[in-house]
Specification:
heterodimer, A: about 375 residues, alpha/beta, 11-stranded parallel beta sheet, two-stranded parallel sheet, 13 strands, B: about 180 residues, 6 helices, 6 strands
Chain lengths: ~375, ~180
């Protein structure tokens, strides 16, 4: 209506000059022009606000109109599709963030459907959800294709990635750590040949102690330690005081070991004689031609140390050996009780000169001749 | 009442948690189990096979399967994976030489699909022994940070000898499992 009025007012322009002189008419014209410009102002304003309201609704979408929803939906859908297509061409290093971005736009799209589902016809809801899940599927296919480990990481990691990539990483990481920790952390005796090595721990607190990579040596440890590790010895004699925790022996050959401990585990031992006092049952694994006899060590103060570590009592467990590779009732062929006449007598290491040298060769010969 | 709420109710009534203790031999698994159960730990033989302990912890019943760790019987560990809610990996923190073995065995274990949903508690045992690595150092050596993100895990230093740290570790494990499986009251 008002538009017509304005049009009328404007179309009256040609006659305006004639009316110019009439002050009343002039005044009227003035107000008319004001009204016009005001109207124009409000019109542009309202169209601006309408437009901005529309763009607001993009972020919190609820249009309550199926067609608006559908056009919006198809817009986002095609933009996601084109992004997916672009991924194939893009730089592999950028791929991960790109795929993440697409995945989040798909989620947004799904949210859009969910937020508008209350007014949409059920057919539209169903077909939109189907489209979303198709998009998601094609994203998964694409990422499986371009970043193969992403989707199948669980399965692929095992057979494929491990032998090549991981051990390398592991070694790289470990090497500095090992050299950083191990050398200062673990007291012990390493890499000796043909020596007699004596340690007296009396009065000092010793945690774990390692004897490793010795050839034809004699080791005498007096005083108690918490844990003892014995690794890779050949033709050695090892005499130790009480070990409060456990002894772990791995890879010994042609040796004589005299030890007292709460637990003793023996792995990969060959042709060895063990003189043990153990609170629990000693075990052997992957061992053969090993023989057992009771503990027979003596030095000044050993009785007291054994008492303090509750190893003073003879439990006869030295003969209750469990062989983890022989789980049958009959005696394991891998170990035997050392015949009394072949045992060494009491070994006294209080004084180095008094130690009777054990004929290691003879021991191994005995073992051989028995078989 | 929906089916889900019935199932939840039944679960809540049972409140049973199955825990599998594994780790290399000599790491102290059996001693830990005996210690938390308040039993004598002065004579513990290396485990040939397995032990089961059922004990009540807070308001839950824990079934703890302590499986021997000797090399020859490690291949039998997988017989115990089914329905495991919590996995306890015990490390001898004083056995520096075999940390590589320890990492390898743990990595193998965590690849196991049947264990993928279980919470993992790593006990850095034997902290009382001088020269042992700290739990942080053990964590670094085992590269725990690189673990799959979906895994719930925690590392706690402990000593089966003194009992220190055990409660803290098991508290975490039970809470984590309970909040996963049972709806907290």
């Amino acid at each position: 209506m008002e538009n017509e009025e304005e049009a009328e007012a404007l179309s009256s322009n040609p006659t305006r000059e004639a009316l110019d002189l009439d002050p009343a008419l002039q005044k009227k014209r003035q107000t008319m022009l004001e009204r016009l410009s005001n109207r124009h102002q409000t019109r542009t304003d309202s169209s601006l606000t309408r437009r901005s309201a529309e763009s607001d609704s993009a972020s919190s979408p609820s249009f309550e109109s199926t067609s608006t929803f559908l056009s919006r939906f198809s817009n986002s859908k095609s933009s996601i599709e084109s992004q997916l297509a672009q991924c194939r061409l893009s730089d592999p290093t950028q791929l991960k963030p790109q795929l993440d971005q697409i995945s989040s736009s798909i989620s947004d799209l799904e949210k859009l459907v969910a937020e508008n589902s209350y007014f949409l016809p059920s057919y539209e809801v169903r077909s939109s959800l189907k489209a979303v899940s198709d998009l998601r599927q094609s994203l998964e296919n694409l990422s499986a294709e371009l970043l193969p480990k992403k989707k199948f990481s669980f399965r692929n990691k095992g057979p494929k990635k491990d032998p090549i990539a991981e051990p390398k990483e592991k070694e790289k990481e470990k090497e500095p750590e090992k050299s950083g920790f191990r050398v200062p952390a673990s007291p012990g005796i390493w890499n000796k040949k043909g020596e007699t090595l004596v340690h007296n721990f009396k009065g000092s607190e010793v945690g774990e102690f390692t004897i490793s990579d010795l050839d034809s040596c004699e080791v005498r440890l007096m005083g108690s330690v918490r844990a003892l590790f014995v690794h890779r010895l050949r033709n050695c004699k090892v005499y130790t005081g009480p070990v409060t925790g456990s002894v772990l022996i791995e890879g010994v050959e042609g040796c004589v070991l005299v030890m007292a401990s709460h637990q003793i585990r023996i792995h990969n031992a060959k042709r060895c004689d063990f003189y043990l006092r153990v609170r629990s049952r000693p075990i052997i694994e992957d061992s053969c031609e090993v023989r057992f006899a009771p503990y027979c060590l003596s030095y000044k103060g050993i009785e007291e140390e054994l008492r303090e570590t509750t190893l003073d009592e003879e439990t006869e467990n030295w003969a209750n050996v469990d062989d983890f590779l022989w789980l049958r009732a009959v005696q394991s062929p891998n170990w035997s009780v050392l015949p009394e006449n072949e045992r060494v007598g009491l070994i006294d290491i209080s004084n180095s000169e008094e130690v009777r040298p054990l004929p290691v060769l003879l021991v191994s010969m005995c073992a051989w001749s028995k078989r | 009442m929906g089916l889900l709420s019935i199932i939840r109710k039944i679960k809540r009534k049972e409140k049973e948690i199955r825990i599998l203790m594994v780790g290399l031999d000599n790491s102290g698994k059996t001693t830990i189990v005996l210690r938390i159960n308040g039993e004598d730990t002065s004579v513990v033989s290396p485990t040939l096979g397995f032990n089961i302990k059922t004990l009540t912890y807070q308001k839950y019943t824990l079934n703890i399967w302590d499986v021997g760790g000797q090399k020859t019987i490690r291949s039998y560990w997988r017989n115990y994976f089914e329905q495991t809610d919590g996995l306890v990996w015990v490390v001898d923190s004083s056995d520096l030489r075999r940390l590589d073995d320890c990492k390898m065995e743990l990595d193998n274990l965590l690849k196991e699909e049947r264990l993928s949903g279980s919470s993992l508690l790593i006990l850095a045992n034997k902290q009382d022994i001088k020269g042992s690595l700290t739990p942080e150092e053990i964590g670094k050596v085992l590269n725990l940070e690189a673990m799959d993100r979906t895994r719930h895990w925690n590392i706690v230093g402990c000593s089966a000898y003194t009992g220190e740290g055990l409660l803290e570790g098991f508290d975490w494990l039970v809470q984590d499992i309970a909040s996963r499986i049972y709806v907290l009251d």
